[in-house]
Amino acid sequence: MHVGLRRIRSPFARLFQPIPPHFANLVRVPAEQCPTRAQAAYKRGACDLPLFSIEKNEPLRYGYNMALTSRSLLKHGSALSLLTFFSRILGLLREMTKASLLGTSALSDAFSVAFMAPNLFRRLFAEGSISVAFIPTFKEYLLQKNEREIKEFLCCILTFLSFFVTLTVALGILAAPLIVKLFGLEEFNETVLLTRVMFPFLAFISIAALFQGILNSVNCFTPSGFAPILLNIAAIVCAYALKDVTGNPARAMAVGILLGGFLEAAMQLPFVVKGGFTFFFTGLKKAVNHPGTKTVLKLVGPTIIGMAAYQLNDLVSTALAGNAGEGVVSSLQYSLRLQELILGVFAVSIGTVLLPDLSEHAKSGNWDCYNDRLKSAMHIIAFITIPITFFALAQGESLIRLLFQGRRFTETSVALTKTAFMFHIPALLFVALNRILAPAFYAQSDSKSPTIAGVISFAVNMALAAALVRPMRGAGVALALTIASAVNTVLLLIFLKENPLVNIARTVWTTVLYVLKMCCFSAALMPPLLFLDPLLLELFARYNRFVRYGCPLVISAALYFSVGLALLAITKDKQVSALLRFIGRRTARSHAPNP
Predict the structure, then answer these.
(1) How many angstroms separate the CA atoms of 248 and 483, rounded?
(2) Which three-class secondary structure state does DSSP give residue 478?
């Protein structure tokens, strides 16, 4: 039944919103009547405050508010961006630890290859396909099924996932010598050992992905956003604490990866239990034949094809690089880590916020707003990535020396990584655009087109990498990936054109003009940057590595981006104008007197 609630002036007043139709017999109650545990969780931002039963004044076991407003979506997106940024920083520190202890040695290549196999399956089955397929099915159960049916569904999914992942881990451990043989590494026996140590990581991370899917389905994002941070911390701590006990740093980091996967799952479990979700193992036959399991598997099938094409890029490229000489595999991994640090924060955040917005406009038939949002997002991506690309091309060596150079990361390591980075970083614009264009298809319930584009770009990447790896070594593999990313972008734009309601021609034309504009502005700032760089390096040459390369980078970046923003502001660039208006509103709000 519905009950009228008086308006109260409190931080919780915004919670009194229209009740979702599926919970018409439930109402929100004032904060004073909420259980202490729920209040504490809400204040921490761990989850949205649950709905409460009017009859018993108790939290409904599965009664979280599952309808996010645009404002709350942006809030969650911002929080996830912050956690993602912190996770990427720690991931970079993990790579710095690896660079310091292993450099680009054969042992470093062994660790990179050993971690690649379980990591590939993780992205393919855990974080990628299963999360994508599980969440929409689970949300349907939350809205339409009773508590018993929800629990039964979770039991069947847990059982099937555990059986499938355990089988995969066992096969991976047994087949480790065959897998490692494909890469032609010097440290064959060590790579097999490391692969076998880290393969159980897949089991822990798959269960963690299931917990993440449950929490995200009820708009509880913080635990799953924080969990990857534990993985990086565990790898760093174990690398230094266990390197003497295990015999070498690679084995110590492998133990850290395994421990980190366990911590990711263990950290989210209490939040799942507090949400009222308790489930156990059931019979395998029952799990396989359950309608919910079949629905998830049907959704997983098409998604796996696209995910597999994307992930196989890394696998096959690494196999080719492993035969190109010692240190090539590691240098490519270091280079990609730098690219991901830049890409992972803004591109993922924009894509996350953009998808529900585009979906709303597509389903309501408001294609003018759909086209406008897509064009704005593409312009924002160009506004961010192009200046960063030019700056990275000019300061790549200093950045690599600052982050990685150490005892085992020698001048040869710097040269190898710099060469790969110079060919990787031009792909930044295309990779970021792909993260924006894919949601444009998902908003139209079209997952086929991005899959086809991914498969074709995978074929292009493999053909070019095989042709270029011998004459160019690691640089050839990096260049192949950059060209394949550009091909993927072009294909996505062509496929979008098939929908007559999407004005892709105008969007592409204005974006190309804006890209050219940003390239001209960025290129104009390069000569002063190149002139100033050796002077700054000489000025700080007598200090340690972090000051010697860090201070010139900070000074160069401050001058480069401030002058660039000033020039764009003078020319009344729309993106800069919007940024200035946003800063002005935030400043005015912070100085406004409290009511």
Answers:
(1) 38
(2) helix
Q: How far apart are CA 445 and CA 136, in angstroms?
A: 13
CB 156 within 8 A of CB 286: yes
Count other Cβ atoms within 10 Å, centred on residue 80: 20
Closest CA to 341 of 116, 96, 84: 84
**Cα separation of 573 and 580, whole Å?**
11
DSSP 501-569: TS-HHHHHHHHHHHHHHHHHHHHHTHHHHHHHHHHHHHHTTTS-HHHHHHHHHHHHHHHHHHHHHHHHH
- How would you write the pLDDT of the chain (595 residues) with one tens digit per residue? 333 333 333 322 332 233 333 333 333 334 344 444 434 443 444 443 333 333 333 334 444 444 444 444 445 555 666 777 788 788 878 888 888 888 878 888 889 888 887 887 787 666 656 656 777 678 778 877 888 888 899 999 999 999 999 999 999 999 999 988 887 777 889 999 999 999 999 999 999 988 988 887 777 777 877 888 999 999 999 999 998 999 899 999 999 999 999 999 999 999 888 888 887 899 999 999 999 888 888 767 666 666 666 666 666 777 778 777 777 888 888 888 788 777 766 666 565 455 545 655 665 677 888 888 888 888 888 888 899 999 999 999 999 998 888 767 888 889 999 999 999 999 999 988 888 787 677 667 676 788 788 889 888 988 998 899 888 888 898 999 899 999 999 999 999 888 888 888 888 999 999 999 999 999 999 998 899 999 999 999 998 888 999 999 999 999 999 999 898 888 888 878 776 765 666 566 555 555 5
Amino acid at 562: S
Please, which residues have CB within 8 angstroms of residue 82's CB and are 6 or more apart in sequence?
A: none
CA distance 575 to 136: 35
Contact 248, 101 (CB under 8 A): no
Residue with tokens 């309501």: 364
Q: Which two tokens stand for residue 96?
A: 């710095």
Please report the DSSP string for 401-446 in residue order. Answer: HHHH-SSSS-HHHHHHHHHHHHHHGGGHHHHHHHHHHHHHHHTTT-
Contact criterion met (CB below 8 Å) for 122 and 165: no
Give the predicted TM-score (pTM) of the model. 0.66
Task: Identify the three-state secondary structure at position 7.
Answer: coil
Compute the chain's Rg from CA coordinates: 25
3-state secondary structure of 303: helix
The gap from C-alpha 474 to its chain's centroid, in whole angstroms, comes to: 24
CA distance 314 to 484: 12
Query: What residues contact 118, with CB distance under 8 A and at least 6 apart?
Result: 172, 195, 198, 199, 201, 202
Strand partners, 52: 27, 59
Tokens of 43: 């204040």
Q: How many angstroms separate the CA atoms of 326 and 103, rounded?
A: 11
Nearest Cα residue to 88 out of 437, 417, 346, 353? 346
Rounding to the nearest 10 degrees, give the CA dihedral for residues 281, 285, 288, 292: -70
